[in-house]
Amino acid sequence: MKKVNFRHSTSRQLLLSVAFLFSFTLFSFSQEGAAQDAPAQEQASAQSDDAGGAELGDPAAGKELFNSLCAACHKPYSESIGPALNGVTDRHDKEWIQTWISNSAAMVASGDPEAVEVYEEYNQTAMPAFPQLTESDVDNILAYVEQPKPEPQAAVAGAGGEAGGSGASGGVSVNVILGILVFVLAILLVVLFLVNKTLRNFASASGIALPEKPKRKPIWQSFVENQFLMVVSAVVVLLTVGYFAYGWMMQVGVDKGYQPIQPIHYSHRIHAGDNEIECKYCHSSARTSKHSGIPSLNVCMNCHKSISEVAPETATEEYSKEFYDKEIAKLYDAAGWDPATRTFSGDQKPVKWVRIHNLPDFAYFNHSQHVSVAGIQCQKCHGPIEEMEIVYQNAPLTMGWCINCHRETNIKIEGNEYYEKIHEELSKKYGVEELTAAQMGGLECGKCHY
């Protein structure tokens, strides 16, 4: 017995040592992480203080004024219809800038040499007058455009990745914890094995006979010999196989979640989400036609003649500013637009868009009936399109899905005399105040099938 107690006490000491090592490791890594985070926070605070001290006006207010009044012709860091505005205070006097913004045509007519030079350099394009802008408004605009060009988002993300990597290499807390847990479990298994072996040796030395387990009939043999269980099992297996086979076959042709890669990366998150462009501005056919239509490149160039690059804050960790700018360059190449000369070359190339939402040919669906007449929002069928970076099929678009929608959606009768009359008659028939599309005949086969 002394021998057994000695082994047990040794294992206990070993477990206590492992627990102490585990606690000490966690404590040291937490201290190291806190020490690494403190300098980073101090550096970020110092940078923000430096940036705030360098402001000459209110860049936030200047950004709003620039986007509403100037962005159609100017960009801060590159030329557009007019010159790039970053560095304008180095090229011209502030009073001259104020006068130019108030009435540039008058300065050109007066023969001001700087005004005439700018006017001739940019193809005699007249700049609209903005007499409503005060001196403080101009200062705010200048404060915005004179900010240093921000670093690309990809570089920031890369720096964050390096920081994360160094943190991981400096304190791989997760890996260390997992390693310690595995080590502790291994020690426990060894201790249990030694204890079991010691007890068996002790029983053998004391002449104690260990009972042997009686051999039983294998369970599979008992199962086979029971005919009732065999019949029930066969029925259950057949029903299960039939259920899953039916479910699998019903998914044929259902493309929910389909998300192809398009030839030009078009971000609905930026256009419909951040910029709040209405869906029907691009898909204008949805108002009057069966199909929503694919917008032509002319629709894209309505805006992108003046937008050759995205704002730095638009970039994400996955998609950098350089990536979006290259996609705009693909649009220019397809449309035959030369941003340097701001002219169309006439050499257009087709963009082979990949269709995502596609109904069978025997199913009839009219966008105008749902969008213009019923007033259904695009998100009802297409999901949160304003949040999608790459568009995917949100709904299954199956017959059952459409029928459920017709059963749950009430008819809007405001401003429609036909619906008002039939709504009154059918309401009496069904004894309801509001009619669903199903009660208006939305479940008839001929509504959706030719």
From TrEMBL:
CDD domains: Cytochrom_C3. GO terms for molecular function: electron transfer activity; heme binding; metal ion binding. Residues 37-58 are annotated as: Disordered. Keywords: Heme, Iron, Membrane, Metal-binding, Signal, Transmembrane, Transmembrane helix. Residues 37-51 have a biased composition (Low complexity). Residues 57-149 form the Cytochrome c domain. The keyword Lipid metabolism does not apply. Residues 1-30 form the signal peptide. The chain crosses the membrane at residues 176-195, 228-249. It holds the Pfam family Cytochrom_C. Gene3D superfamilies: Cytochrome c-like domain, Cytochrome C3. PANTHER family: CYTOCHROME C7-LIKE DOMAIN-CONTAINING PROTEIN (PTHR39425:SF1), LIPOPROTEIN CYTOCHROME C (PTHR39425). This is Cytochrome C. It comes from Christiangramia salexigens.
